[in-house]
TrEMBL record:
Molecular function per GO: rRNA binding; structural constituent of ribosome
Subunit structure, interactors included: Part of the 30S ribosomal subunit. Contacts proteins S3 and S10.
Keywords (A to Z) from UniProt: Ribonucleoprotein, Ribosomal protein, RNA-binding, rRNA-binding
Record has Kinase as a keyword: no
InterPro entries (alphabetical): Ribosomal_uS14 (IPR001209), Ribosomal_uS14_bac/plastid (IPR023036), Ribosomal_uS14_CS (IPR018271)
Ribonucleoprotein listed as a keyword: yes
GO cellular component: cytoplasm; small ribosomal subunit
Name of the protein this chain belongs to: Small ribosomal subunit protein uS14
Amino acid sequence: MAKISAVEKNKARRKLVGRYAAKRAALKAIIMDKSKPIEERFKAQLQLAALPRNSSKTRIRNRCEVTGRPRAYYRELGMSRIALRELGNRGLIPGLVKSSW
């Protein structure tokens, strides 16, 4: 089980990303638009840098919904390999069968 503080920090980051997503997208569009004057693009870049760091999408860490584990995460299922195996062995995941050969 992951530290609760790490899981909560990641939840706060997700919330912050959602709050600033539109503003970040607008500023990035101005920065990438080569037809705009260089002063306006530079001003937009400074405004983007002034936003909170945790509002960047790349700072979000995918974590297991069951345990909070940050590694070995399956995106389609939203959980780690260990949680997947435990729930699969208990028969709680439909269609998942333990293989043996």
